[in-house]
Amino acid sequence: MSTPQRWASLPDVPTFMEAGFPSLTRNAWSGVLAPPRTPAPVIGKLNAAINEGLAGAETKATFAKLSALSQPGSPEQFAAFIAEQSPIWADLVKVSGARIDN
Questions:
Q1: Where are the alpha helices (DSSP H) in 9-65?
Q2: Is 44 part of a structural domain of the chain?
Q3: Three-state SS for 10?
């Protein structure tokens, strides 16, 4: 498991950290972004609706079936997360040798 902690549905599978690879803690993630200069009230309304949806029992059950986690939060928290993750993923892309062919 590349998550920092063991996965609840696979409690006997150790994490990479536990297996001796402390820097191998990467997870794919996704989020919702709005165009630049979207008014703050619109962002607030979208954020509230998304967080409400993520908190719903049906969404949680669907995510569990997909072995996915949700992490509701504020636009500021997500911006900080993206700022933290961008250099990590940029390095991984660089190491992989991936490139864009037009």
A1: 40-55, 57-65
A2: yes
A3: coil
